[in-house]
Structure formats: C-alpha cells, structure tokens
Amino acid sequence: MGDTRTHVRRRRLVPWVVVGLWLAALVLVGPLAGKFGGAQQNGAVDYLPDSADSTQVARIQEELPGGESTDLVLVYHRDGGLTAADREVAAGQVAEVEKGYKLSDDPRGIPSEDGSTLMYPVSSTQPGQDEEAMVAFVDGVREITEGSGGLSVEVGGPGALDADADKVFDSIDGTLLMATLGVVTVLLVLIYRSPFLWLVPLAVAGVAVAVAMAAGYGVHELFDVTITGQSGGIMTVLVLGAGTDYALLLVSRYREELRRHERPYDAMHAALRGCGPAILASSGTVAAGLLCLLAADLNSSSGMGPVGMIGVLSALVAMTTLLPAVLVLLGRRVFWPLVPAFGSTPKARRSLFAAMGTSAARRPAAVLAGGAVLLGTLALGTLNLSGDLRQEDSFTDRPESISAMRTLAEEYPERSSQPLTVMAPTDRADAVLAKARGTDGVAEAAAGRSEGGWTEISVFATAAPESPGETRTIEALRDVLDDDYGAHVGGPSAQRLDLADSEARDRSVIVPLVLAAVFVILVALLRSLVAPLLLLGAVVAVWGAALGIGGLVFEPLFGFAGTDPGLGLLSFVFLVALGVDYGIFLMHRMREESLNGADPEAAALTALRTTGGVIASAGIVLAATFAVLITLPLVALVELGFVIAVGVLLDTFLVRTYLVTTASVLLRRWMWWPGRLSRAPESAPRERQPEPV
Question: Mapping DSSP to helix (H, G, I), strand (E, B) and coil, where does residue 524 land?
Fold first, then answer.
C-alpha cells in the first residue's frame, strides 16, 4: 500500500517538475530571444555564396577607404519637360545633401534626351556596413529632396532598394507572429469546440517560439550561422504550424485514452506511447530535410537549415513535455463541455473519412489512376512559370526606389542607371579600365577608390538593369577580366545573376539529399521499403502539382512578373518534409492496426477513420500558417507561402485520403515488404473499436 501511495505521489509531482523546469528555462532564455531580431542580416553578401564573383567584390569594397558605399540616384522628373526653376530646385537640394552628408564625389546632373528628367548619382561611405545608418542616410536624403507643383522627385539606386527591403524585413517578424497566432487561435477554437482547450497548445507554442529564437541566436553567435529575415520568419511559421500539428495528434490520442484510463497521468502516458513514435519520426523527417540545406552554396539557404531545424525541434520538445504536463495538471475539465469520461464510449456519428475511405475502397484502381492523372495535369502548370524575378518586381507594393528605377529605365534607354562594379588589381587597373570600355554593351566606365592593392571601377551598361542585354554584358566582362586580369565583376545585377546560378546548383545537390534522408527515416519507422517509396512518390507528385497551380495563378491572377529562383528548392524541402508528416501519422496507425491482426484493407480504412480528422485539422492549420506569408509585401515569400499552403491541402485531402489509402488496399501485405508484416498471414481483425476522430 505504501509503495502504491508513493508511486501515485511521484506521478502527481512529475508534471509540476516539468512545468517548473520550463518556467526556469523561459526566464533564462528570454533575454536571448529578444536578440534574435537583431541577429538577422539582410545584406546581399548574407544571401550570396562565398565563392561568387560578386561576393568577392562586396568584401573588397568593405576594405576600401570608407568601407562599403551606399549608392543612390536622385531622379527629378516633370511630364512635358523640366523648367529652369526645376533645375534650380534640383541643384539646391543636391547641394544641401552635400552639406549634410560626406559624399564620395561631387554629384553631376545627367539630363535625359527629351529634357523631362534629370538624375544625380550620389554615393557615400558614411553609413558603412551599419544597416541602421544606411537606412537613416536614405531617409535623410528623402527628407531633403521633395517635389512640388508637378515636379516629381524620387530617390532610387541600390542603396535605396536595400533600405526599402530592410524596412520590409524589420516589419516581418512582428506582423508574421501576430497574424500566425491569430489564424491558429481561430482554427483551434473551431477544431476543439472548447472555450479553454485551445489556449493550452497555443501558449505552449508561444513558449516554443521563444526557445527557438533564443537557440537560433545562440547558434548564430557560436557558429556564425547566417540568419536572414526570410529564415527568421519561416522559423516562426514552422514552430507554430508544426507544433500545433503535434499538439492536435497528441490531444486527439489523449482524449481517446481518457476513456480507457481513470487517471489523466496514465492516459497521457498511453497517448505518448501510442503517438510518440509518429511525432518523433515526423519531426525527424522535417529536421533532416532542413538540415540538408547545409549543403547549399547560398548563405541564406544554408543558414535556413539549422534555423528551421531548431524551430522544429523546439516545437517537438515543448509539445511532448510541457504540453502533456499542463494537460495532466488541468485534468479532464480542460475538455469542457465535451469531457471524455472514464469508461464512456464516444457518441456514434457518421464519419466523413470512413465514408471517403469506403468509397475509395470500392474501386481503388480507378481512384488511384484518376488521382495520379489529376496531379500530373496540375503539374503541367509549371510550364507557365515565368522567368526569374527581377529586383524591381520583388515587392507587392511598389516602394519609391522601384518607382525611381522604372522612371530611369524609361527616360534613359541608352544606358543603365545602376552601375556594375569591377574590382581590379591596382597594378592592372588602367588595362582593366581600357578593356572594360571596349567591351560590347558598355556605355561608360570610370575608376574610383583604391586601397590594399585593389581599385574600384564603375561600369555602366547600355542595357537596362537585369535585362538579357545587361546579363550578356556581365558575362562578357567576366570572360575577359576574370582570367586575364584577375578582376572581379559585382554589383546588384551581378549579385542576382550569381544567386540564380547558385540556386540551380543547390537544387541538383539538395533534392537527392532530402529524398535520401527522409527515405532512411521512413524505413526505420515503418520497417518497409515499399511504404516509404509510396510516401515519397506521393509528396513529390504533390510538390509538382502545387508548383503547377502556382504557375497558373502567379502571373494571370496575382500579376507577378517573375518567379523567385529559390522557390523550387525551398518549396520542395518544406513540402517533402512536412508532407511526409501526414503519411507518417496515417501509416503508423495502419501498421499498428496490422500488428493487432487486421487484414490490409481493414487496417487502411481503420487508420483513415481514426486519423483522418486529426490529419485534416493539422493540414488546415499548417496550410493556414504558411498562407499568412501571402499577406507580406515580398513576392518571394508570397510565392513560397502559396505553393506550400496549396501543397499541404492537396496532400491532406487528396493524397492521404484517397491515393495512399487506395494504394494500400491494392498492395495489401506487399505494402510492408520486406518486413515481417509482409509475410504475416491475413486474418480477421482483433475486436477493437477505436474512437473516430
């Protein structure tokens, strides 16, 4: 009797200890979490590969007198032509800019051929590498330069573009967190139909976000991992989306076990034993897939790997320790008004997923073939994906820097307003300058700063920025300067060209790595070769279909003029890793039913009936969290959020419900080949009535 009482007291004490440890951890990591936003780096070098020519240019620029320069273009424009008074206003404002800031050269006005526009290139090393100082410099110039009476004044150039992008990234974290929390709250209230239960997983997810931010900052400081605004925002979405999914699975199983166990502690213990392996494998596939990004050449992608993995693991630990502890302490009453009483049976109701599974099982071959044809047809939409997204098309709301860029392109068609930067060894600078001036597609070239054996040369192309003509000019300059003169060609356009090239290389390396890593985890979990191949084939088909739907809507419906080069790789990593989650939930339950003696068809239909509801709920939550990215003002994030959200919904309501179920019915015991389940004789299922979800 004494031993029993001691055991009961210990069981009551364990949840309190777990909660206490988490509260202590939260107090310790709180200050570090607050530094996560400040650790984000959104400069071009933070995204570029280390080996790129443009990266070398940016790094050499940092060593020149004054460090990296901030280049602006002041654009004065009046429809019908500038007046003498307009030119006086422009000259006065430029003089005021010179007086207020230390400029690299005296600004020189360049009029357009029709006399309607006057541009003043302005460069300063005063802000250096400090992003806040750079934004302050651009804002200060904008305050000085104002138009009136029909005179339009816009501040553009690479520095203004960087400042506008930096402002967008600064606003992402708070906006994204609040929007995602709001979406998850609404969905949890609808799913749980309880005035209290929704708050528990949401609060635990908030704790997981704080821990993930603290850990992300720590990894950045210890290992110099690059954290960008993009990876920071996606980490938040991952923690809330994946964490809520794990909570839905655990709470569903816990509710089921509360009807079989009198004490909440025992019910939670049984729930963790039942769904714990699936949650662990699910998080493992996502973490492994993200970790494969370490092989990426791009700094932004390689940094997203460990940052995303930290988010998923934080969600896993919180949802399998803190959430169970809090639920046990709150007891059954947290489910009010739908309290699962001990010994009760769930109210009989028609299960949507049971009906769907039964209908699919009647003609499994036809359903499977029809679904495959549908996914293949949707994937044809990828042929409609437009070319790489240009910098001027990367914002959903056009900032001033983009308006200035378009004005310059229209008014100065004979030359680019955005220089290419060539870094030449000083002892060969004159020869490089002469060679650059003689290169096809170059309108003008001039030498600038020198230091440490390097000389900066600004080259203006005749073609517009990021046009095919400018790309040919960049390639021609690199062909004649890199090998023969040891020079490097960089600048904003060259950086975007290097980004696109690196993205193509990364896809060829990382896609096979992700497939191999996920396959190994699935084999270990399911003890089969066939089931993992089926799941991987399904998620790859979903990825192709989701990209195809994107191709059908991005330009015709959203008006996007290009596709982000990183969309294919990042959407693949997330859809494969996250999509396999739901396959794991379904297959793990199917295997459990088969081990209990169910025949293959009964096991498949029972697994769908018992997990269909929670998979649907989890899919809706995850899709909604990624859909929040669609509200952000960056086209790259809108495209990524759309493709992932659509892919998750396809995976949830088509692939898992119909295609995987029908394939399981058709394959029968071969699904588990070469494991022992594939050799087990088929028999009648053991008497057991799992709760419909």
Answer: helix
